[in-house]
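Z., the sequence and structure:
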Amino acid sequence: MQFTAQLPQTYHTLDAADELKAFRTLFYIPANAKGEEVIYLCGNSLGLQPKTAEQYVQQELNDWKTLGVEGHFHARHAWYGYHHFLSNAMARLVGALPTEVVAMNTLTVNLHLLMATFYRPTAQRYKILIEAPAFPSDRYAVASQAEWHGINPHEAVIEIAPQPGQHHLHTADILQAIEQAGSSLALVLFGGVNYYSGQFFNMEAITQTAHRVGAIAGFDLAHAAGNIPMQLHNWNVDFAAWCSYKYLNSGPGGVSGVFIHEKHGNNLGLPRLAGWWGNNENTRFEMLPDFVPQPGAAGWQLSNAQILPMAAHRASLEIFDNAGIDRLRKKSLQLTGYLEQLLLQVNAHAGGNAFTIITPTNPEERGCQLSLLISGSNGRAVFDRLTQNGVVADWRKPNVIRIAPVPLYNTFEDVYRFACLLQEALQQTAG
């Protein structure tokens, strides 16, 4: 099906000019029952598998098979310090020093570990500010941290929601909420990009305002890492954590990443929940009774490195290093902008009220994702029709379809074909 209005550029022209188009060939694209590639627009939920991931994981399996425990020091990539193989690339992705990042554990585990250090409430300063809707795991984490300290979470947790009739937050409202909480605020814990609306928050301004009232600024970057260029060090962010299985394409349940600003990471006396893998690498196997943390984020490690997930992560990070987050962002702006143009045409063709794009229209306030709030009660029917026609997207109650064209492996043709299928689905489910 063709659109009635002509766009200024066709997807053929855009794909031909795409300097990153070869990166698609580095990933496995799922196929339908007919063997045809699906239109995969769900990298914000689970990224596709790099073709090198199997080789990298297999190398570690082979070393385990042939070396056993000696793999800790004699594997091709010695397991004892495996996190070091990831730190430089991770640092480049989030705008950090290599010593400020470490790969370990999983996301919510790391948020709890970080809050054990950075959420230390007092009788006066105990409140935590989060966005609404935050990802449920974040909401559970902050509420349980308050309870852990004997504080009623209904009193401790402040949720700031969009204004009535709106779908995303204004930076001014966030900063005002921080200032209003003032001396009672212990921690701001925001998503870098909101999972539901796709809004990219002004992390620098949030951090500055949090510090001005004496609070700590932390971020869940699950939907930001690999999606948005960041400067965590220069923005003076206190801490952050992210998963690696969404935009970072490192496999289901993949290892998490952590950022701790050097001003904290170099404070070896800072309280933390300790484990032996965070101990000084030079003396770790001396089994000394006293914990002497490594400087930097690595000092928050607890247990042995997760070698197999880290191997898959290393495969993906090498691709990101070759592509460059700034080049990916440039394509992302173009790709998501093209999707937005098409969606506006589809909506106009359907009478102008078939759906609402609840993601900010300002490209600087969003990443890859656009979230569509389907009007009426046929949202699930529209989503199911798209799925039947080979689109892999994401459904969120009550009536939202999340679409994420990822610059590493999605094409402008993917986006165009999706828009055509969406137009068909809206027509077929109308009434």
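Residues 325-349 form the longest helix (25 residues). Residues 4-8 have pLDDT under 50 and may be disordered.

Let me know what you think.
H.
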